[in-house]
Amino acid sequence: MSLKITDWAVEERPREKLINKGTSSLSNAELLGILISSGKKGKSAVDLGRELLGMVNNNLNSLGKLTIAELRKLKGIGPARAVTIAAALELGRRRKLEEAEEVIQIRSSGDVAGIFQPLLSDLPHEEFWALFLNRSNRVITRMKLSQGGISGTVTDVRMIMKQAIESLASGIIVCHNHPSGNLNPSESDTKITNKIKDAGNMIDIQLLDHIIISGKEYYSFADNGLM
Q1: How many CB atoms lie within 10 A of CB 63?
Q2: CATH dotted code for 104-220
């Protein structure tokens, strides 16, 4: 039977360790243990954190994709603990997103992926977004165009052009995610890319790229010579 955290040496307890040595001194299980507070009888919160990590093969990205219901499948994780864990992971995701938004000038497909990966990589459904750029490739604004299911989403080209004109944009970059993990563009991905490109050409607004996000990886139409 594992020792309770209160039985540990004071300097080795997760909260005290964080205060005295900083957040980087704690393992993932210890950080989760702080969120969980206490587990089922006879088991420390850190042990429960290890079990939770074991459910996702110690992959924090996979942990961030778990729903409240999935978190609660582990005995000892009730509604309150599941919500606490989900909220902490969402704060981490939003921090990454805000850091990515500091990149205001687009110089490469990697800059675009850096903006959208924190937003799209963990989603269980597809979303289609657009960046609207000025002549210096600086971001004027971004817009979510549609949200769909696991295998697709419908995008209205007229909405993209309307926003581009209203923003006085000179360029557009579109981006969507593939929850399946398959980075290869589908036939519908290619068709919508060509439709947006043709519509933009009619009003002298260039489609610069179409990025597909899946986890930590991405696919660029421009990098692959498809623009």
Answers
A1: 21
A2: 3.40.140.10
Map residue 38 onto helix, strand or coil.
coil
Total-model pTM: 0.60
Q: Are 219 and 185 in contact (CB under 8 A)?
A: yes
Contacts of 89 (CB under 8 A, 6+ apart): 63, 64
Q: CA-to-CA distance for 197 and 191, rounded, in angstroms?
A: 10
Q: What percent of the chain has pLDDT over 90?
A: 40
Three-state SS for 214? strand
Is the per-residue pLDDT at 11 higher than 80? no
Each domain of the chain, given as residue ranges in start order, spans: 5-97, 104-220
Q: What is the CA radius of gyration of the chain?
A: 22
Residue 61 in contact with residue 122, Cβ under 8 Å?
yes
Query: What would the mean pLDDT of 100-114 be, rounded to a whole number?
Result: 82
* Mean pLDDT, the chain, whole residue set: 84
